[in-house]
Amino acid sequence: MPNKSNKSQASKLSLKRQFCFDKWSSTTINKAYKFSDDYKTFLTNNKTEREVVETVTKLLTKNNFTQINFTNKPPKNWKKLFLVNRHKALIFAIKGKKSTSSGINVIASHIDSPRLDIKLTPIYEKEHLAYMKTHYYGGIKTYQWTTLPLELRGVVVLENGQRIKINIGSKSTDPVFIITDLLPHLSEKQMELKLKDAIMGENLNLLIGSNSTKNKQSKQKVKDNILNLLNQKYAIKEEDLISADLEIVPAGSARDIGFDSSMIAGYGQDDRVCAYASIQAALNIKNPDKTTVVIFLDREEIGSYGNTGAISSFSKDFIASLLAAETNQFDENQLRDCLSASSAISADVTAAFDPHFADVSDPITAVRMGAGLVLEKYTGGRGKGGSNEASAEYMAKIRKILNSNKEIIWQAASGTGKVDFRGGGTVSIFFSQHNMDVVDAGIALFNMHAPFEVAHKGDIYSAYLAFKQFLLS
User: Fold this and answer.
1) Residue 214: what pLDDT?
2) CB within 8 Å of 96: residues ≥ 6 apart
3) Residue 5: band (very low, low, confident or very high) from pLDDT cuts 50, 70, 90
4) What percent of the chain has pLDDT over 70?
5) Of 139, 130, 111, which is closest to residue 49 (Cα–Cα)?
6) What are the b/e assignments for 24-33, b being 16+ CB within 10 Å?
7) Band of pLDDT at residue 65, cut at 50, 70 and 90
8) How far is residue 473's CA from residue 468's CA, in Å, rounded to a whole number?
């Protein structure tokens, strides 16, 4: 006969996956739904990194943060500061009770998402139709861009420095754009190709018009009509598109999924879901012990290269300016010591176990939708290539933080997909280069790197609670 006491003891020793809506009270579930409603609005209104920065700038200003730049230094008695880097990245800080030099708490996420960018001289005419040439940015499968309603968002910058905002397709009365595909009846050869070859990147051309100018001398009447319309509405000419950041993104609002509205579908949840959770966490803490720094980065989807990405020195320079305001004896050694005593979370998404594609994951260690925040000791694949790996000591510290709040539901992950698959990377490797303790933590998605990604409301709220608890530690 089995010993009942031994079975009870085994139950206590075993790690069991918990699901948010199984564990939480109806009150907490309602909070999660409300939090997600506000998040959906944020996601719908902010489909480019510039839009995120503009929205967050307004939010921080409303919450009494002072904006600084690369030339004006923070005052000695600063409390809440932020810096915008080239309209595409942002970093803000909340002064802690302890000195900044003793170490800080950092949460870093990225606000760029896979998209289509407009080429520098994009408009052309073919068969009495006008198109725009594009260049894909990041890793959405090329065939997923076809036959979708698409929006055009971004800015055109004139020679005099004036920035002209473009947002076409977000209103119900706006036109949208589309990339065409073959009908099934004529797709026999196309259907024999591999998915990656069926739609080539060079053929992702945006259909933008068919009406023509009345100028009989024109040799490209449809293109000229488009240029006339752009000039009439935005006062721009074709050359101005050379100095533009124009992005093509899926049209439509973020929406609830399911009869129970328990999940959210929307564009750009990688990684704006973590960005939103982190800023809400930071704004809802008071008098933290350690200085809080939250970073929104650009360029992560293409390796973090560039002056607005994680490789750039702007984050480190901002922290240096905080230290300089704290003492008149600042030097590089002080910055080095501060960073090495700091704790960081690379807040990024990962792939949830999809039962319809179970063969790409290890079912024992894969993370589940609705089972809370994902804590990843390492990312990467094929021998942990290209990944940071948090130490056992730091993992223990983060576990203690998460377990100190019983409402936080979390799960552990071992990379993305099976060991021999390529996996993915995050910005954690760049922060670890500064000798910081850093771990990846975020939200599991379905349809990651697709025009519409899926997140669970319980996971989103768990991430918010976890980030808040981390910043208070």
Assistant:
1) 82
2) 104, 288, 289, 290, 291, 292
3) low
4) 97
5) 111
6) beeebbebbb
7) very high
8) 9
Instruction: Please classify residue 197 by burial: count the beta carbons closer than 10 Å to its beta carbon, then call 0-12 exposed, 13-18 middle and 19+ buried.
Output: exposed
Backbone angles phi, psi at 50, to 5 degrees: -65, -40
Evaluated on CA atoms 137, 344, 379, 269, the torsion sign reads negative
Bond before 362 cis per omega within 30 degrees = no
CB of 443 closer than 8 Å to CB of 460: yes
- The DSSP code for 381 is B
Q: Model's pTM, two decimal places?
A: 0.95
Q: Poorest-confidence range of 109-118, 121-130, 198-207, 214-223?
A: 214-223
Contacts of 65 (CB under 8 A, 6+ apart): 80, 81, 82, 92
Fold of 15-113+267-472: Aminopeptidase (3.40.630)
**pLDDT at residue 9, as a whole number:** 65
Q: How far apart are CA 336 and CA 198, in angstroms?
A: 50
CATH 3.40.630.10 occupies which residues in the chain? 15-113+267-472
Q: Is the pLDDT of residue 1 over 60?
A: no
Query: Domain 115-250 class?
Result: mainly beta
> Could you tell me which residues come within 8 angstroms of residue 348 by beta carbon, excluding any fewer than 6 positions away?
109, 110, 270, 271, 274, 300, 426, 427, 440, 442
Give the whole-angstrom CA distance, residue 139 versus residue 407. Answer: 34
Q: Where in the chain is the domain with CATH 2.30.250.10?
A: 115-250
User: Does the pLDDT of residue 101 top 70, yes or no?
Assistant: yes
Q: Which residue has the higher pLDDT, 215 or 87?
A: 87
Residues 438 and 54: their CA atoms lie apart, in Å, by 28
Q: What is the pLDDT of residues 19-42, one digit of tens each?
A: 999 999 999 999 999 999 999 999
Give the single-character DSSP code of 192.
Answer: T
> 3-state DSSP call for residue 43?
helix
The span from the CA of 207 to the CA of 123, in Å, is: 10
Q: Which amino acid is at 423?
A: G
